Amino acid sequence: MEEIKFNQVGVSFKGSGSYVPDQILTNQEISQKVDTSHEWIKSRTGISERRISSLGDNVTEMGYEAALSAIEMANWDIKTIDLIILATSTPHDLFGSAPSIQAKLGAYNAVAYDLTAACSGFLFALITASQFLKGGLFKRAIVIGADQLSSFVDWNDRRSCILFGDGAGALAIEATNEFDNFIGFDMRTDGERGSYLNLPSKNNKDSIIDNIEFLTGGFSSIQMNGQEVYKFAVKEVPIIIEKLFRKTNYNSDQIDWLVLHQANQRILDSVGDRLKIPREKILSNLGKYGNTSAATIPLVMDEAIKNNRIKQNDIIATSGFGAGLSWGAALIKWG
Asked: Which residues form the catalytic set?
């Protein structure tokens, strides 16, 4: 069969979706577990509550719900989807959860795989998918960010347990030969600072037979140096966005919205101040959901789209940053 190659030059954005579990964990409830308070958490992070997966929730289920919502907004026939990328660091299946989402959707013509880059994951997946579409072999893609961080939080560590929640978000993107709404991007990694935020393996020594030893599989809880992560984010994120502005001949005055990974309200405010972007243009919903890792960017975008804040042809500067350490930025036009 002859290979079909589409004649395309750009990417358009067709739909968004999201999903959060029903269980709500408030700051007041966390203060029953560890020595903290609503006022302390809120003043330092901006977070009031977060969603926690119940026994029936997992990354596959959350990712499926978010993807289905995005597909419905795009009004696509599911069989026309060519690519599904799931950004997650907490897959339901360590071998990959994207194939399960593909099967659950019935998107049998789509190739599906996971991408792991923690809090930068959704942005990296969006960039990856856009390059596939611009390359001409794929026409339609679903990009999902989903994480279940509650499974890997030390709920006795008051420095970290206050930050994280569970959720999923997705965008439906399509190749086009008429225009390009994926204006530009940049990506960075600094593995030397990776120990500032990680989820390391936790292996116990065992033996198969007397002289053959091995390490059992498993993971510890999230490890984070909050002070160093904060310093990294407020320094590196404005730099990479400003670099992207110069590369694309845009400036902060032309931006309708700044959409950052929802890690800490102080980070969002500091980055906005350094870029001279007014607070009213900085989208934030971490007060309700906390840090959902790869889910934060599509989750906050979906809410803003459905609330008619993000409108057709709005210019959005977005940045993901976190474990790795990795960070990146993209400039897009919605629609």
From this structure: 119, 261, 291
Task: Answer for the pair 41, 33: CB distance below 8 angstroms, yes or no.
Answer: no
From CA 76, how far away is CA 191, in angstroms rounded? 39
Which residues lie below 8 Å from residue 169, measured CB to CB, with a gap of 6+? Answer: 16, 17, 18, 19, 66, 122, 144, 145, 146, 295, 296, 297, 298, 299, 300, 301, 302
Cα–Cα nearest to 23, from 58, 41, 50, 60: 50
Which CA distances in Å does 225 have to 24, 30, 196, 322? 26, 20, 5, 11
pLDDT in tens, 149-200: 999 898 998 888 999 999 999 999 999 999 999 999 999 999 999 888 887 7
Q: Are 318 and 123 in contact (CB under 8 A)?
A: yes
- Sorted by sequence, the CB contacts under 8 Å of residue 273 that are 6+ apart come out as none
**Percent of all residues in the chain with a pLDDT value above 70, rounded to a whole number:** 98
59, 167 Cβ separation under 8 angstroms: no
How much is the pLDDT for 5?
55
- Rounded to an integer, the average pLDDT of 305-312 is 97
232-288 pLDDT, tens digit per residue, is 999 999 999 999 999 999 999 999 999 999 999 999 999 999 999 999 999 999 999
Would you give the end-to-end CA distance of the chain in angstroms?
34
Structural domains of the chain in order of their starting residue, each with its CATH number: 10-179 (3.40.47.10), 183-193+221-333 (3.40.47.10)
Report the candidate in 65, 57, 39 with the shortest Cα–Cα distance to residue 150. 57
DSSP 193-261: GGGGEE--B---EEEEETTEEEE---B---EE-HHHHHHHHHHHHHHHHHHHHHHHT--GGG-SEEEE-
pLDDT of residue 68 exceeding 90, the answer is yes
Tell me the C-alpha distance between 283 and 297, whole Å: 10
Distances from the Cα of 178 to the Cα of 12, 185, 332, angstroms: 10, 20, 16
